[in-house]
Amino acid sequence: MKNLLATTTLLLAILYSFGQAQPPKYEFRGVWIATVDNIDWPKKGQYDVDSQKADFIRQLDMHVRNGMNAVIVQVRPATDAFYPSPYEPWSQWLTGVQGKPPVPFYDPLQFMIEESHKRGLEFHAWLNPYRANFSIGKASIAPAHITRLHPEWFLNYGGTTYFDPGNKEGQQWVENVIRDIVSRYDIDAVHMDDYFYPYRIAGREFPDAASYAKDPRGLNKEDWRRSNVDSIISKLAFIIKDTKPWVKFGISPFGVWRNQDKDTMGSPTKAGQTNYDDLYADILLWLQKGWIDYVAPQLYWEMGHKLVAYETLIDWWSKHTYGRHMYIGQGVYRALEKSPSSRAWKNPNELPNQIKLLRTYPTIQGSAYFSSTTFQSNPNGWSDSLRNNYYSTPALVPPMEWLPPNPNRGIATLPSVMPSATEIPMDIKKPTKGKP
Question: What is the pLDDT of residues 218-248, one digit of tens each?
């Protein structure tokens, strides 16, 4: 069965390469820009405001040259802020010390939105809902940080502090933060990734026994945890649309919803952890209920992988969109890894083959790439491939017919050609392994 699927997907890719001369008019082409631990922006120790601005603009211009039409920027990496927030302190990754504002003062979020929109890029505000202290004992934590004011809302696990998803007051805090962002800023989307309940650590249980005992609601612990996450997703969906009905809500989950040996609806994969069973994120329910507008599963494996093959997962996800948009998370950062498991990512054809394959599925509307600074080193010539081939023709972000138009935008039009490519500077750092 696996061989048949692999053969079928390869044939589809070949048919695509011969049968489709031009890239699609509508295609999501997004890039994640991670701020946690200074992965993409700003550079570590780069606290000069003019330098921060210049570097962000340089990255945007690179992505425009590469044919992108959206950026997904991390603006709340650890219950902190890359904007003046009435709730949370300035991020340590912006100024070096949590709670310290930039000098001279500026609003990085407003700046990033304006510069993105100038270039025709959608701006998706990426927020981590539950992470509060990225590295216990090492991170800079301001005196007014919510973990100091309400320590009873939080739990420690694996050297990181998280909101207890079962704590309703903590949920309300997150809801207030997101309502504030949506109401004050002209963002195109609210975006969350795969960090709901944390990834399991072998031999260690997430310490929420007291919270569960306090209010089990007649559920077993696994269903109770999923209910907690469902609750905040449904509330955020309401808050976003109640505040600005045109703002999208997207989730970028781990690449496997559930393995087939656990559920006949699951994918024929053998992932060690899954959204449903380990992160307690029932992505399919959120799609079915219409709580989210798009899903961007992180398919950071190569084609032909023994346990979680790209072609297997893309086929599975294409059948589970429930009428919402599907963008595929592409792990281009893996080309810079040096581990034996990343050997397949040294193949220059890996990414092109993945793009060709996803374009054969009408229920898949594009890609999101992790992450921004990877493209600065032009791994395997992929920046060239996007500029000169796969994204040489501009594309519009696919419209969502269930949402009203953004009153702050006119009718989107395409330029006739992409901007001219220029030499990309090579004096950059490589991204941290994995997605933050």
Answer: 999 999 999 999 999 999 999 999 999 999 9
Got the DSSP string for 304-331? T-SSS-HHHHHHHHHT--TTSEEEEEE-
Q: How far apart are CA 30 and CA 432, in angstroms?
A: 19
Q: How many domains does the chain have?
A: 1
Residue type, 57: I
Residue 415 domain-assigned (yes or no): no
The DSSP secondary-structure symbol of 83 reads S
DSSP per-residue string spanning 321-367: -TTSEEEEEE-GGGGG--SGGGGGGG-TTHHHHHHHHHTT-TT--EE
Element (H, E) at 31: strand 28-33
pLDDT at 409: 81
On whether residue 434 sits in a domain, the answer given is no
Tokens of 18: 């011969």
Consecutive 10-residue runs of the chain (436 residues): their mean pLDDT?
A: 51 48 86 98 97 98 98 98 98 98 98 98 97 96 98 98 97 98 98 96 97 97 98 98 98 98 98 98 98 98 98 98 98 96 96 98 98 97 97 97 90 63 35 44
Q: Cβ distance 257 to 284 under 8 Å? A: yes
Closest CA to 319 of 287, 290, 292, 355: 287
Please give the biggest Cα pair distance in the chain: 61
**Which of 19, 64, 148 is CA-nearest to residue 383?**
64
Q: What's the CA gap between 156 and 139, in Å, rounded?
A: 14
125 falls within a domain: yes
User: For residues 393 and 418, is the Cβ–Cβ distance under 8 A?
Assistant: yes
Give the pLDDT confidence of 124-140 residue by residue, as tens digits. 999 999 999 999 999 99
3-state secondary structure 232-294: HHHHHHHHHHHHCCCCEEEECCECCCCECCCCCCCECCCCCCCHHHHHCCCHHHHHHHCCCCE
What is the C-alpha separation between 283 and 256, in angstroms, rounded? 10
Give the 3-state secondary structure of residue 162.
strand
Q: Which amino acid is at 125?
A: A
Which domain CATH number covers 374? 3.20.20.80
Domain that holds residue 364: 2-390
Q: Are 80 and 88 in contact (CB under 8 A)?
A: yes
**Residue 412 in domain:** no
Sequence-ordered list of residues with C-beta below 8 angstroms from that of 258, at least 6 positions apart, any chain = 265, 266, 267, 274, 275, 276, 277
